[in-house]
Specification:
Shape: rod-shaped
Radius of gyration: 35 Å
Strand content: 35-45%
Distance between the termini: 90 Å
Largest sheet: 5 strands, antiparallel
Helix content: under 10%
């Protein structure tokens, strides 16, 4: 802390303080600087509680002796930096066949501060997931400033392919009067058939 003695007026009284703040500049203010204003709340004590702030903000304590005209900056500029949390988006590839593990989730992280760590609900710690079964997967991403963001992605699968058939047997030995009526449900149409 560097302290500069205030000037102007008699300057014989007790110390008086005012805290100034800026959300646009962290350069030491000068008299009449439009980037700086009195800090909100109780700002005339030796200490100042800024409370909650959602944007990066700079503070400086100025002082004078009672009877002086001008305040002068007496402290270093204090900066409270607000770091944005990461933003997450996902692209999914769903399972091709019921019961298989062919799904994948491609996770994209923007914003935040690298490096990132990943904690998936299936205990994976990679950015992306591959060869996964159907289900909902949740990931929490933590950046270098311990800011976190959570998102989920759902992998779907087709229903199980079910075959039902009715048949008519051959009436006479050696003839070709039989038939099979096959009904397919589930899966994903169109279907292909390979009779053996």
């Amino acid at each position: 802390t560097s302290i500069t003695g205030p000037s102007g007026g008699s300057g014989l009284g007790a110390a008086e303080y005012i805290w100034m703040f800026s959300t646009t500049s962290c350069t030491t203010p000068v008299i009449g600087d439009p980037n700086w204003a009195p800090a909100p709340g109780v700002n005339n004590l030796a200490t100042y509680d800024p409370g909650f702030t959602s944007v990066t903000t700079c503070f400086i304590r100025c002082s004078r002796r009672a009877g002086c005209v001008q305040y002068l900056g007496e402290s270093n500029i204090l900066q409270i930096s607000i770091f944005p949390a990461p933003a997450l988006s996902t692209t999914q590839v769903n399972v091709v066949c019921n019961g298989a593990s062919t799904g994948s989730i491609d996770l994209t992280v923007t914003g935040g501060t690298a490096p990132f760590t990943y904690a998936w609900s299936n205990n994976a710690t990679t950015q992306d997931l591959n060869n996964i079964a159907a289900g909902t997967y949740t990931v929490t991403v933590t950046d270098a400033n311990a800011c976190t963001k959570t998102t989920s992605a759902t992998i779907t699968q087709p229903t199980l392919v079910i075959l039902t058939e009715t048949h008519v047997n051959v009436l006479c030995n050696g003839s070709s009067t039989g038939s099979i009526d096959l009904t397919v449900t589930g899966g994903v149409a169109p279907y292909t058939y390979n009779w053996g």
